[in-house]
Amino acid sequence: MPPLLRVEKVTKSFDGFVAVKDFDITVEPGQMACIIGPNGAGKSTTFNLITGHLKPTSGRVFFHDREITGMAPHDVCQMGMGRSFQRTNIFPRLTVFENVQVAVLSHAKQTLNFFTPAKRLLQEETYSLLEDVGLADEAQSVSGTLSYGFQKQLELGIALASDPELLLLDEPTAGMSPQETTNAIDLIGQIARDRGLTLLFTEHDMDVVFSIAEKITVLHQGQVLAVGLPDEVRRNPEVQRVYLGETE
Ligand SMILES: Nc1ncnc2c1ncn2[C@@H]1O[C@H](COP(=O)(O)OP(=O)(O)OP(=O)(O)O)[C@@H](O)[C@H]1O
Ligand SMILES: [Mg+2]
Asked: In this protein, which residues make up the domain named ABC transporter (predicted)?
């Protein structure tokens, strides 16, 4: 089976500053792949290059063996690639239900005056997504008042509304307490298994990375420093020198 995602020699410069250089990655269907690297290594930029939020200066991106380089984010999303952002991307004044409903509607390409049975269907879909991400009891809460952990769960619900095959999560546990982190990772793992999702995520917390990642790509100053299984990466002296050493 071909990889679900293949990135070939992608480079991005911002006014001459090279943020990502010759980045390669392949992600197989069903895999839980992780990109790690120090602050400013280029992780979020790489995500934006994959999802179409940024256009590469050079290099190519393939999804399902189809080239998607330079494609608009909503087209990439329609093809089955969902994402969450490092900073939460929710509408703070809408309720939890409304936030997910907007995403469901947008994926279904419905307008707000569609006929009732379809509306009901989408309501059920919205509730079912809220249940999946553990927010059914918070459906009517105003999103901006949620705890940080719940806001991240909401983001996950929004990302799942497009029914993605590949889900990119940019630091899904950033800013969470250790307990929130454990809960979030259990939830993400469970959802990925239930839905047969392929995951590509970035993460600061090394315990999280080594507990769930099946393949790790280490970025350093915009370039791939190492790729491998968690144990290989953990033992890699270069990685220990530039990265793991810094965080311990
Ligand atoms: N739009 C931009 N214009 C100019 N420079 C940028 C832009 N976006 C990112 N950069 C720079 O590119 C580098 C990589 O940034 P990026 O946000 O991808 O890092 P990161 O690995 O996600 O870091 P963090 O761990 O802090 O989230 C940084 O030096 C950043 O300042
Ligand atoms: Mg980042």
From this structure: 5-246
